Amino acid sequence: MSIQKIMVIGAGQMGSGIAQVCAQAGFDVKLNDMKEEFFARGLGTITKNLSRNVDKGRMTESEKEAILGRLTKSLDINDANDVDLVIEAAVENMEIKQSIFKQLDTIAPAHAILATNTSSLPITELAAVTNRPEQVIGMHFMNPVPVMKLVEIIRGLATADDVYQTIEDMTKKLEKVPVEVNDFPGFVANRILMPMINEAIYTLYEGVATKEAIDDVMKLGMNHPMGPLTLADFIGLDTCLYIMETLYEGFGDSKYRPCPLLRKYVKAGWLGKKSGRGFYIYES
Ligand SMILES: CC(=O)CC(=O)SCCNC(=O)CCNC(=O)[C@H](O)C(C)(C)COP(=O)(O)OP(=O)(O)OC[C@H]1O[C@@H](n2cnc3c(N)ncnc32)[C@H](O)[C@@H]1OP(=O)(O)O
Ligand SMILES: NC(=O)C1=CN([C@@H]2O[C@H](COP(=O)(O)OP(=O)(O)OC[C@H]3O[C@@H](n4cnc5c(N)ncnc54)[C@H](OP(=O)(O)O)[C@@H]3O)[C@@H](O)[C@H]2O)C=CC1
């Protein structure tokens, strides 16, 4: 199947990055969010990223304009009525994602593939609310999307082989590297990464060391580009908590219990870099 038109749902940090790389690769992209201001924020990030590429001589001004010309605003999910692929990157919440997938199933053309950028939620459970479970698949990009090479591609129980192949080919067109995984809580990336981050939060919670010391140990001792607490802030503490909950519920194993400090920060609205405060404070 050939993909030309894409809708990305959610213009947050992931959705805007996904829309950017799709438009850069020549696809026509509708970027959908619920409110004008969220779309404007996402488009602002994309424009800034492209301008940096122009400044660094990696792209001409006219190439930048052509990419922006392939991006269209959408504030109505019904705009999915003529696309070949939807990539959903709304908030990490099963009820919200299921509601979006139910609507998409009635709106999107019969041939359209419905992909989700979920970091941990079961693809099979999302597929089950549609009448096209064989056309539902996980397409898990990494943050920041324009920089990170990996896309974890997750097969739901019913995902058809040709749908998998189409998404793998499309991932390569985005100049990303696809890695195939099966549908288990947290897939591979977050089953391994998130317990490490949660353990770093416990280490802080138990007073073993300061946040700076914990980050330094992992940066200088393990050559991680960011310490785990900085990375948690970067991902979003709400997203980290949702992922830990999914692992905890999905495996029923206490080793995945979210640290109470993580819960407390999320309840306080300290969501990390995107809200201006998490383990660290950020200037807007
Ligand atoms: C939660 C999930 O479900 C899955 C996930 O995504 S988990 C998170 C996975 N991501 C990570 O682990 C990221 C870890 N951090 C890193 O790799 C690096 O710190 C980083 C790439 C983010 C920044 O790299 P750095 O060398 O420290 O900083 P910096 O020199 O400013 O940036 C390097 C390049 O990335 C670009 N960049 C950095 N942040 C960016 C962003 N948010 N958007 C676009 N480009 C960005 C910079 O412009 C720069 O590009 P050039 O060298 O081409 O000019
Ligand atoms: N952060 C990360 O590092 C990664 C996240 N992911 C996954 O990507 C998804 C998005 O995460 P991220 O971009 O970080 O989150 P953000 O909070 O930055 O963005 C989510 C966006 O989706 C919008 N949104 C919420 N509900 C709807 C809806 N019903 N219809 C349309 N838009 C909606 C939000 O609006 P509002 O602001 O009003 O809520 C917001 O603009 C999540 O599933 C997450 O798990 C995957 C890989 C990495």
UniProtKB/TrEMBL annotation:
<dbReference type="InterPro" id="IPR006176">
    <property type="entry name" value="3-OHacyl-CoA_DH_NAD-bd"/>
</dbReference>
<keyword id="KW-0560">Oxidoreductase</keyword>
<feature type="binding site">
    <location>
        <position position="33"/>
    </location>
    <ligand>
        <name>NAD(+)</name>
    </ligand>
</feature>
<dbReference type="InterPro" id="IPR008927">
    <property type="entry name" value="6-PGluconate_DH-like_C_sf"/>
</dbReference>
<feature type="site" description="Important for catalytic activity">
    <location>
        <position position="140"/>
    </location>
</feature>
<feature type="binding site">
    <location>
        <position position="119"/>
    </location>
    <ligand>
        <name>NAD(+)</name>
    </ligand>
</feature>
<dbReference type="InterPro" id="IPR036291">
    <property type="entry name" value="NAD(P)-bd_dom_sf"/>
</dbReference>
<protein>
    <submittedName>
        <fullName>3-hydroxybutyryl-CoA dehydrogenase</fullName>
        <ecNumber>1.1.1.157</ecNumber>
    </submittedName>
</protein>
<dbReference type="Pfam" id="PF02737">
    <property type="entry name" value="3HCDH_N"/>
</dbReference>
<dbReference type="InterPro" id="IPR006180">
    <property type="entry name" value="3-OHacyl-CoA_DH_CS"/>
</dbReference>
<dbReference type="InterPro" id="IPR013328">
    <property type="entry name" value="6PGD_dom2"/>
</dbReference>
<dbReference type="InterPro" id="IPR022694">
    <property type="entry name" value="3-OHacyl-CoA_DH"/>
</dbReference>
<feature type="binding site">
    <location>
        <begin position="10"/>
        <end position="15"/>
    </location>
    <ligand>
        <name>NAD(+)</name>
    </ligand>
</feature>
<dbReference type="GO" id="GO:0008691">
    <property type="term" value="F:3-hydroxybutyryl-CoA dehydrogenase activity"/>
</dbReference>
<dbReference type="InterPro" id="IPR006108">
    <property type="entry name" value="3HC_DH_C"/>
</dbReference>
<feature type="domain" description="3-hydroxyacyl-CoA dehydrogenase NAD binding">
    <location>
        <begin position="5"/>
        <end position="183"/>
    </location>
</feature>
<feature type="binding site">
    <location>
        <position position="92"/>
    </location>
    <ligand>
        <name>NAD(+)</name>
    </ligand>
</feature>
<feature type="domain" description="3-hydroxyacyl-CoA dehydrogenase C-terminal">
    <location>
        <begin position="186"/>
        <end position="282"/>
    </location>
</feature>
<keyword id="KW-0520">NAD</keyword>
<dbReference type="Pfam" id="PF00725">
    <property type="entry name" value="3HCDH"/>
</dbReference>
<feature type="binding site">
    <location>
        <position position="274"/>
    </location>
    <ligand>
        <name>NAD(+)</name>
    </ligand>
</feature>
<feature type="binding site">
    <location>
        <position position="143"/>
    </location>
    <ligand>
        <name>NAD(+)</name>
    </ligand>
</feature>
<dbReference type="GO" id="GO:0019605">
    <property type="term" value="P:butyrate metabolic process"/>
</dbReference>
<feature type="binding site">
    <location>
        <position position="97"/>
    </location>
    <ligand>
        <name>NAD(+)</name>
    </ligand>
</feature>
<comment type="pathway">
    <text>Lipid metabolism; butanoate metabolism.</text>
</comment>
<dbReference type="GO" id="GO:0070403">
    <property type="term" value="F:NAD+ binding"/>
</dbReference>
<comment type="similarity">
    <text>Belongs to the 3-hydroxyacyl-CoA dehydrogenase family.</text>
</comment>
